[in-house]
Amino acid sequence: xxxxxxxxxxxxxxxxxxxxxxxxxxxxxxxxxxxxxxxxxxxxxxxxxxxxxxxxxxxxxxxxxxxxxxxxxxxxxxxxxxxxxxxxxxxxxxxxxxxxxxxxxxxxxxxxxxxxxxxxxxxxxxxxxxxxxxxxxxxxxxxxxxxxxxxxxxxxxxxxxxxxxxxxxxxxxxxxxxxxxxxxxxxxxxxxxxxxxxxxxxxxxxxxxxxxxxxxxxxxxxxxxxxxxxxxxxxxxxxxxxxxxxxxxxxxxxxxxxxxxxxxxxxxx
Length: 269
Description:
By secondary structure, the protein is of the alpha/beta class. The chain contains nine helices and seven strands; from the N terminus they run H-H-H-E-H-E-H-E-E-H-E-H-E-H-H-E. It has helices at residues 3-14, 18-31, 33-46, 65-71, 86-98, 135-145, 184-194, 207-226, 230-253, and strands at 55-59, 78-83, 104-108, 120-126, 146-157, 198-204, 262-268.
């Protein structure tokens, strides 16, 4: 299953007007469990900082939903969002200019090469590292780009079934991934190698989150991959499943998990 063609089709639908794109972000925030976990950590980081002039790096910005959310917390924060996809970056710059968020800039950059020494107070990497083979190089670049005391926040699949892989004989549900998931100790060691000295890691996507992910993401994407006509039926599908997914997301994001298919990692310079 290739996510990119489906994501591109959805992006084309919701990118037609600023209002539709805002709606798209809102729906992603509700449906994607990783967003619940990431927002929780960002709220904690942001406490007492909204009046400060800070620099933030969205390292692998995708559609820009996390940059949109962060830029709404404080106009004093300057946010640089980078990705490798030219068209996506151009669309994002156009949208953020349309809605008047001048504290945001999108740019095409390769995280394996990009480094801006001692610039950022926060770096965010959500579902990015599983796509990049040279992960230690990226961690090293981000470490160099953070100011002293700056934090890197990572959301990525774990080796406990991340990418929907549960055994050695299975392949990733998302074939664009270069690794199925990180061992929790492995990613901590790689961050230490990159120069980070304080690291906290915890599992996300415990049992409630795994059920929600299948209902809200896996099954709809499989059906969309089989036929684009399913897009017409999506509202009716979510009318039934959406309330259950919200409850499961809340339970997962409010709980500590001994294992899970996702990881939330924080590392400080």
